[in-house]
Amino acid sequence: MAGSAPRPAPDDPVQEVALWDPLLRGFHWTLALFVSLGWCLGQFGPAKMTLHFWCGYVVIGLLLFRLVWGFIGPAPARFSHFLRGPGAVAGYMRGIFLREPSHWPGHNPLGALSVIAMLAVLAAQVSSGLISDPDDYINIGPLAGYVSPALRAKAVGWHEVGANLVLILVLLHVAMILFYRFWKREDLVRPMLTGRKQVRDRGTD
After folding, report:
1. Residue 194 C-beta-side C-alpha neighbours within 13 Å
2. Whole-model pTM above 0.85?
3. What range(s) does the Cytochrome b561 bacterial/Ni-hydrogenase domain occupy (predicted)?
4. Model confidence pLDDT, tens digit, residues 23-66
5. How many Å apart are CA 190 and CA 5, to the nearest integer?
6. Are 27 and 17 spatial neighbours (Cβ–Cβ below 8 Å)?
């Protein structure tokens, strides 16, 4: 994990570069779709959670892909490219309320933390779902039989808490996108659609 990176300065030249590869972009939007669908089915869906389970299986596959891609994918997708130490996060935070685009070359140090938090919470969420046994004789996790009855029962509560954490992280993610769009005048959605982003030369690695 890189410890620090130079913060792009306002007078550094800006250029549009190819940043997010097609597989990473596809991962992002597919994950957003199935997490949203799975959450809605879990909260409002039919009593029999078959579709909810299948959403979870898709999320598991996507998380495994992201783990692998974080090591062998293109540079901007790799964890080593965007994970920073506390100093870099604090340095970025000092300028976060400046009313100017950051033009960061990839995930900024704060955004990197949100990526890891989301991946970790989703991993915990699907894990708890796999071993949950809500005692309704219908929606039993496929791996519930491999753990103790006490752990199966606790997993139900963990899964409910995880659903709330997922909702909180998604709302924070959307809030930050709106903050960047309307306060910092930086569009973070278009680069995840086109793969191209305006970045400053300084700060790349």
Report:
1. 11
2. yes
3. 20-195
4. 999 999 999 999 999 999 999 988 889 999 999 999 999 999 99
5. 25
6. no
